[in-house]
Design a protein that fits this description.
20% of the residues lie in helices and 36% in strands. It has 255 residues and is α+β, with helices and mostly antiparallel strands. It has 2 domains: 94 residues, OB fold (Dihydrolipoamide Acetyltransferase, E2P) (Beta Barrel), CATH 2.40.50; 149 residues, no CATH class. It has a 5-stranded mixed barrel. It has a 3-stranded antiparallel sheet with strand order 8-14-15, with no helix packed on it.
Length: 255
């Protein structure tokens, strides 16, 4: 049965290429009822038209059903044309909702992914930030040759990251494990893309400088904010957890 739902958007991952939906963005957040939610399909072009919305905004939409749309309990398939942007939340409001959902990775791993597949972590200690080659780069790039039409005129190609980034961290004060989890946050990949363009233009010396720029922001600068969180979720196919987004206050955010 269809239903309307309000969602505070916590994260958007960098677009992926989907056989069924072309270019997709994974959007996750907390509903006005306090439930963690993953919604799809959210086509890439949504972010370039009148239905565009940002992280930390409330949105409203209709779901095709009030039941999970895949094996992950938080997933809902939405009717894209029903998306409405309701405007930004204050960081105080966002923090109050987030703090009620904080969990450790150990707790998530102990649960069946069919029971829980999304969580919010406040990392206790960041240990490292590493870069690795994207093993599927060539295959994904070949898929990415397809384009998505925007308003029937302009075409957009998805930039495919040649490397991937992971955090090494302890997830809580009592955590004895050094976790290593890949991060697919939109802002991270966008920064990597922009820095790599500077390298191509000769503004940055080499790929080492590109990595240092990305690491400086996401490992040194952002975690020093007063509030810093990971939104983690399981991969659809592999059921392993990845960081689907980082949350932190910006200067424009109101407490």
């Amino acid at each position: 049965m269809k239903m309307k739902e309000k969602l505070l958007v916590l994260t958007k991952t960098y677009p992926i290429v989907s056989k069924k939906y072309e270019h997709l963005v994974c959007v996750a957040g907390i509903t006005d009822k306090g439930e963690l939610r993953r919604i799809y399909p959210v086509p890439f072009e949504v972010f370039w038209n009148e239905k565009s919305f940002k992280k930390k905004n409330w949105i409203e939409y209709e779901t095709e059903s009030d039941e999970p749309s895949d094996h992950r309990p938080e997933s809902r398939k939405i009717i894209t044309k029903t998306i409405k942007d309701l405007g930004p939340a204050s960081f105080k409001e966002l923090k109050e909702l987030i703090e009620q959902k904080i969990i450790s990775l150990e707790e998530l791993y102990a649960k069946n992914p069919r029971e829980v597949s999304l969580g919010i972590i406040k990392p206790n200690k960041l240990i490292d930030f590493v870069e690795e080659a994207n093993e599927n780069y060539k295959k994904i790039k070949e898929k990415g040759k397809q384009t998505t039409l925007i308003d029937g005129e302009s075409a957009v190609k998805i930039w495919i990251p040649k490397n991937l980034f992971s955090y090494k961290f302890n997830c809580s004060e009592s955590c004895p494990i050094q976790h290593k989890i890949m991060c697919e946050d939109w802002e991270l990949i966008a920064l990597y893309r922009n820095c790599d363009k500077y390298r191509e233009q000769g503004k940055y010396k080499d790929e080492k400088v590109v990595f240092e720029k990305v690491k400086d922001k996401f490992f040194n600068v952002l975690p020093n904010k007063r509030d810093f969180y990971f939104v983690v979720g399981t991969h659809y196919r592999f059921k392993t957890y990845i960081v689907v987004g980082v949350i932190y206050p910006k200067k424009a955010d109101k407490y």
